[in-house]
Specification:
Blueprint: H1 2-35, E1 42-43, E2 46-53, E3 64-71, E4 74-82, H2 86-106, H3 110-132, E5 149-156, E6 161-167, E7 173-176, E8 179-182, E9 204-208, E10 214-218, H4 221-224, H5 235-242, H6 250-265, E11 273-280, H7 285-289
Antiparallel strand pairs: 1-2, 2-11, 3-4, 4-5, 5-6, 6-9, 7-8, 7-10, 10-11
Helix pairs in contact: 1-2, 2-3, 5-6
Region (Disordered): 287-316
Domain PPM-type phosphatase: 43-280
InterPro entries: Bact_Sigma-Reg, PPM-type-like_dom_sf, PPM-type_phosphatase-like_dom
């Protein structure tokens, strides 16, 4: 009798825990959808598609972030990766994205946007450190003080000119029918969090995104993904095949990359992956008839040929 009662109690507890887990995942998923809201398919003449894939089976929250917003200064884009996972990472994502959504409208220069994000992140980490360790000082010696965010800011002007600021994040790829290149830029700044920003923040002039061209942004989980033999995922090869014969469609491109990632890793990702594709679909006759003086790599030709085995910025 005691064995039967114990078994029944264990089954009851197990069902209760499963219900709580399902409810927690539902709440977490709702929070993620509010913070990392779905992007519209078009933003100021640009076709947009984005998606994320979690490394942990059943996970609904992570540290990847992205946003695309049309402003009077142009279309402004952020892509980032918060160190860590779970609800603490989601809180950091919320702090960064909340600041970005306000700053892009207020700040005429991209450097001003980045400084706003840096201040918001620093304030968030200080408040979280005080809440988690109330006995320590304002700069606690805790893991919170070591957290960071890799971040890429882009601005696409009304004429297609692209400018960027990069804080330890992979530069995007430029795609058009038959051509693929890694967007060239200055050496990235350190990730936000551990170090103060320099006094001078000149944005990188990345050239012009012509009609029909697209930018492929990603978090480093895409290039860091390995198969059973330890080989890295060949992201440039897959992108090159995707644009070889026809213009890249953003949604189809996302499906191809995610399918390739899951096939390469056997469905076992070690890190979250977020992808964002922005294609210039502004089909004005003048823009379509006049060849661009520079491509979005900042030169009259492709500014930097793809390396044989490109590697993203290393992070701890």
């Amino acid at each position: 009798m005691a064995v039967v009662m114990s078994t029944g109690l264990l089954l009851y507890v197990r069902r209760a825990l499963l219900r709580e887990l399902r409810q927690a995942r539902k709440v977490a998923g709702a929070a993620q959808s509010v913070v990392l809201r779905p992007l519209p398919p078009r933003v100021a003449g640009l076709e947009v598609a984005a998606a994320r894939l979690s490394a942990e089976c059943g996970a609904t929250v992570g540290g990847d972030l992205y946003e695309v917003i049309a402003t009077e200064h142009g279309v402004r884009i952020v892509m980032g990766d918060v160190r860590g996972h779970g609800l603490t990472a989601l809180a950091t994502v919320a702090a960064v994205l909340g600041s970005f959504r306000e700053a892009v409208h207020d700040e005429p220069e991209l450097a001003g946007v980045l400084r706003r994000l840096d201040r918001s992140l620093a304030r968030h980490l200080r408040e979280r450190a005080r809440a988690e360790h109330p006995s320590v000082g304002s700069v606690p010696d805790t893991p919170v003080a070591e957290e960071f965010v890799t971040l890429l800011l882009l601005e696409i002007g009304h004429d297609g000119e692209v400018r960027g600021l990069n804080c330890g994040h992979p530069w995007p790829y430029l795609l058009e029918p038959g051509r693929l290149a890694a967007l060239s830029g200055d050496d990235p700044l350190p990730p936000l969090g551990p170090f103060p920003l320099p006094a001078d923040l000149p944005p990188t002039d990345c050239g012009r995104l012509a009609p029909g061209q697209a930018l492929f942004l990603y978090t480093d989980g895409a290039e860091d993904a390995r198969d059973g033999r330890g080989r890295f995922f060949p992201l440039p090869t897959l992108l090159g095949e995707a644009v070889r014969a026809r213009p890249p469609h953003p949604q189809a491109l996302l499906r191809n990359v995610f399918t390739g990632l899951l096939r390469h890793t056997g469905g076992r990702l070690r890190d979250d992956v977020a992808l964002l594709v922005v294609r210039n679909d502004r089909l004005s006759r003048a823009a379509a008839a006049e060849p661009p003086d520079r491509d979005a790599c900042g030169s009259t030709a492709w500014a930097r040929p793809l390396p044989t085995n490109p590697r993203p910025t290393q992070r701890s």
